C-alpha cells in the first residue's frame, strides 16, 4: 500500500501534480488490506477528504476475491462506476471486470414494452410521447437503466407499467429472457471481480436468502459497506413485514394490465379487480385520519379487528377469490401464476400483521399523505446480521465519516452484532479549527420551551444576514421546519426553498444554481448532499437530533434495553443523535478551501452532562458565542 499511496508512489506518478499524499488514506488502505489478508472484519471512520474510495477499492482488487461494494444510494453507485473505476482500470487494473447491480424496477422490461405497443393503454399525449421516446431508446440502450431517461419524471406512472419488477416477471419462460436487461445485468455480475450495489439491493438479497427464495447477487466472499452508518435502518426495513394500501392497488393494477395484455380481460375479472380496490379502500380508511407513525400493540390490533372484522374478512376474501379464479382460468400464462402468488403472499402478510404475537417485533402503523402502512419491524437486528452476514462471510468492511462516538465503535458494533474487528478512527484531513466555526448562541431558551420557535426564527434571520444566505437550515421535525420557514421567509431578502415543494434532486440543483439561496430541510438533506465551495457557507441545526422517543420502533428499542438492565439513553439514544449531528454538520466542509459557520440553536450541548459526548465526538471546530465573532469569521473567509 505504501508503494501505491505513499509519497512518490504509483498514485502520485499517475496523477502527477494533481495528487497530494494523505497519511490517513494510506493508513486506511493498509487496514483494509490487513482485513482481506487475515479474513477479518474492519470498521474505519474516514472523514471527507480522506480519499476512502480508492483506499478500499485497491486492496479489494489486490485481494483477488469477488467483492461486493455496497453504497448508500444509486447516485453513489454511478459515481463509483463512472469516475473511480475507469481511473483504476486505466492506471492499475486494465483487466478489472466491474458490474453495477440495481433493483429490477430500475430496468425496462422489453416484453411489456412490446406488448403495450399493441394495446391502447396509454393516457394522454404526454404519455404517448414518452412511450414513443422509450421505444426508440430501447433499440439503442445497452443497459435499459431508467437513469438514462432524463426526460422521465421521478413519479412517472408510465414507468410502473414498463419496469422489470420481480412481481410481474415470468423469468426463463419470457420470450425476451435472453435479451432481457436484467438477465444481462446478472450475467455481467457473474463475470465480475467487483459488484457495485446499494444497501437496499444488498439487504433485499440477504432477506431473500433468509426466506429460501434464491438470491439476487452471485456468490461473493467479502463486502465493503460505504456509508455504513445507514445499515441498521436499511436492514430493519428489509427484515420487516409490511403492507400498505399501495400494495393492494398495485396488485389490482398489475392484474388488470396483465389480463388486458393477454386478452383475458373479461368484464367479470375486471370487476374482481375493482372489488379489491374498493375493499382495500374501506379497510384502510378505518385507520385514524391523523398523520404520523403510531404503535399498534397486540391489544390495539385485537380491538381494531373486533371493530372492523367485516372489512378485514372482506379484503382477505377478495384476495382469496382472485387466487381461485386465476387458478381456474383455462389459460394459465406465467404472468397469472405470478399474480396469484403475489395475492397469496399479501394475504399471508395481512394475517401475520394482525394475528401474530412475536415478541422480537414491534408492530406499528403510519398514515403518510395518501398512504397507510402497517408493519412489524425487528426490535433488534444485531442477531439477524450476526447470523446472516458477519458469521457466513469472513471479511466485511464498514466505513463512513460517522461511525465513532467519543472515538470508539462500541455503539455501531452493538447495534449491528459485530464482535471481533479491526478498528480505526482516522485523523481528519481538514483543518477544522481554521475552516469551521461552531456557533452556539448564549441566550436561547430550551428547545422544549414555548418561546423557542420565535427566538430560533430571530437567530436564523440574523445568521442569514451575516452569511448572505448560502445556508442549509436543518430540522429534526417537519412541523418545526414549516413553522420556521413561514416565520423567516418574508424577513430575509434571499431566495428561500422548502423541502417538499419539489423533488430532492430539483431542490438541490436550484440551491446550487441560485445566488444566496437558503434551503429549509429535514432528515433527507442531513446526509449524502455535497455542495462544496461558497454556495454553502452556513449550516444551521435547530436542535440535537435525538430520535422521536414516541416513535414505535425507537420506543420498543429503548424498552428492550431497559428490560435488559441497560442504560438506553446512554447506549442508544445519545450515540444515535451524535452520529446524526456529525452527518448534518458534515454538509459544510467538503474541501480544504471550504470555510463556514456551523450553528446549533440547542444550548443543551453546553448545559447537559451528555453535551460533553457530542463535543468529544465532533471535530475540533473553532467556537463562538456571539454574532460579532461569526461576522468576523465570515469576513475573513471571504477575503481569504
Q: If you had to describe this structure to a student in words, what would you say it looks like?
A:
The structure is a single chain. The protein is of the alpha/beta class and 640 residues long. Helix content is 49%, strand content 13%. A seven-stranded parallel sheet has the order 3-4-2-5-10-1-11. A seven-stranded parallel sheet has the order 14-15-13-16-17-12-18, sandwiched between helices. The longest helix has 31 residues, at 298-328. It is globular and about 80 Å long. The mean pLDDT is 91.
Summarize the model shown.
The protein is of the alpha/beta class and 640 residues long.
- The end-to-end distance, rounded to whole angstroms, is 36 Å
Share in β-strands: 5-15%
Tally of helical segments: 26
Largest sheet at a glance? 7 strands, parallel
> Helix- and strand-based class?
alpha/beta
Give the overall silhouette: globular
What is the count of β-strands? 18
Provide the low-confidence segments as ranges: none
As laid out across the biggest beta sheet, the strand order is: 3-4-2-5-10-1-11
Helix content: 40-55%
Radius of gyration in whole Å, from Cα? 26 Å
Average pLDDT: 91
Amino acid at each position: 500500500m505504501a508503494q501505491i499511496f505513499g509519497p512518490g508512489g504509483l498514485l502520485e506518478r499517475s496523477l502527477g501534480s494533481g495528487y497530494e499524499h494523505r497519511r490517513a488514506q494510506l493508513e486506511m488502505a493498509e487496514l483494509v488490506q490487513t482485513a482481506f489478508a487475515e479474513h477479518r472484519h474492519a470498521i474505519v471512520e474516514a472523514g471527507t477528504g480522506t480519499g476512502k474510495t480508492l483506499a478500499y477499492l485497491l486492496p479489494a482488487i489486490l485481494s483477488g476475491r469477488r467483492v461486493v461494494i455496497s453504497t448508500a444510494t444509486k447516485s453513489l453507485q454511478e459515481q463509483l462506476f463512472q469516475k473511480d473505476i475507469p481511473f483504476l482500470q486505466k492506471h492499475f487494473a486494465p483487466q478489472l471486470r466491474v458490474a453495477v447491480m440495481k433493483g429490477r424496477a430500475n430496468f425496462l422490461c422489453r416484453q411489456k414494452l412490446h406488448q403495450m405497443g399493441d394495446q391502447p393503454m396509454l393516457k394522454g399525449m404526454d404519455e404517448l410521447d414518452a412511450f414513443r421516446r422509450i421505444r426508440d431508446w430501447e433499440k439503442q440502450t445497452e443497459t435499459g437503466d431508467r437513469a438514462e431517461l432524463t426526460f422521465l419524471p421521478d413519479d412517472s406512472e408510465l414507468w410502473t407499467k414498463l419496469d422489470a419488477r420481480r412481481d410481474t416477471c415470468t423469468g426463463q419462460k419470457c420470450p425476451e429472457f435472453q435479451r432481457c436487461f436484467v438477465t444481462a445485468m446478472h450475467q455481467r455480475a457473474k463475470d465480475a471481480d467487483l459488484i457495485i450495489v446499494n444497501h437496499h439491493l444488498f439487504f433485499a438479497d440477504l432477506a431473500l436468502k433468509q426466506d429460501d427464495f434464491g438470491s439476487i447477487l452471485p456468490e461473493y466472499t467479502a463486502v465493503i459497506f460505504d456509508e455504513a452508518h445507514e445499515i441498521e435502518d436499511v436492514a430493519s426495513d428489509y427484515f420487516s413485514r409490511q403492507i400498505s394500501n399501495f400494495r393492494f392497488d398495485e396488485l389490482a393494477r398489475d392484474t388488470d394490465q396483465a389480463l388486458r395484455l393477454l386478452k383475458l380481460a373479461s368484464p367479470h375479472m375486471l370487476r374482481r379487480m375493482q372489488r379489491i380496490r374498493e375493499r382495500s379502500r374501506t379497510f384502510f380508511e378505518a385507520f385514524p385520519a391523523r398523520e404520523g407513525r403510531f404503535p399498534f400493540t397486540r391489544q390495539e390490533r385485537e380491538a381494531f379487528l373486533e371493530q372492523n372484522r367485516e372489512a378485514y374478512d372482506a379484503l382477505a376474501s377478495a384476495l382469496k377469490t382472485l387466487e381461485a379464479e386465476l387458478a381456474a382460468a383455462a389459460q394459465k400464462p406465467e404472468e397469472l401464476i405470478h399474480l396469484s402468488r403475489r395475492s397469496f403472499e399479501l394475504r399471508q402478510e395481512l394475517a401475520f400483521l394482525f394475528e401474530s404475537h412475536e415478541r422480537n417485533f414491534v408492530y406499528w402503523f403510519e398514515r403518510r399523505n395518501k398512504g397507510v402502512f402497517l408493519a412489524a419491524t425487528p426490535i433488534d437486528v444485531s442477531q439477524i446480521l450476526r447470523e446472516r452476514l458477519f458469521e457466513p462471510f469472513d471479511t466485511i468492511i464498514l466505513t463512513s465519516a460517522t461511525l465513532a462516538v467519543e472515538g470508539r465503535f462500541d455503539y455501531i458494533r452493538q447495534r449491528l452484532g459485530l464482535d471481533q474487528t479491526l478498528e480505526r478512527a482516522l485523523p481528519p484531513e481538514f483543518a477544522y479549527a481554521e475552516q469551521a466555526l461552531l456557533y452556539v448562541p448564549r441566550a436561547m431558551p430550551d428547545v422544549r420551551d414555548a418561546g423557542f420557535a420565535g427566538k430560533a426564527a430571530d437567530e436564523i434571520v440574523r445568521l442569514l444576514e451575516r452569511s448572505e444566505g448560502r445556508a442549509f437550515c436543518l430540522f429534526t421535525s417537519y412541523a418545526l421546519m414549516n413553522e420556521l420557514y413561514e416565520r423567516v421567509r418574508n424577513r430575509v431578502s434571499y431566495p428561500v426553498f422548502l423541502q417538499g415543494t419539489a423533488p430532492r434532486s430539483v431542490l438541490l440543483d436550484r440551491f446550487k444554481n441560485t445566488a444566496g439561496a437558503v434551503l429549509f430541510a429535514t432528515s433527507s438533506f442531513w446526509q449524502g448532499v455535497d455542495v462544496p465551495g461558497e454556495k454553502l457557507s452556513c449550516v444551521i441545526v435547530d436542535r440535537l437530533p435525538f430520535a422521536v422517543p414516541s416513535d414505535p420502533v425507537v420506543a420498543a428499542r429503548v424498552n428492550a434495553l431497559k428490560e435488559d438492565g441497560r442504560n438506553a439513553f446512554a447506549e442508544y439514544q445519545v450515540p444515535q443523535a451524535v452520529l446524526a449531528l456529525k452527518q448534518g454538520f458534515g454538509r459544510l466542509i467538503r474541501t480544504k478551501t471550504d470555510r463556514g459557520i456551523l450553528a446549533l440553536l440547542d444550548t443543551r450541548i453546553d448545559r447537559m452532562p451528555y453535551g460533553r459526548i457530542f463535543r468529544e465526538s465532533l471535530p475540533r471546530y473553532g467556537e463562538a458565542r456571539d454574532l460579532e465573532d461569526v461576522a468576523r469569521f465570515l469576513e475573513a473567509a471571504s477575503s481569504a
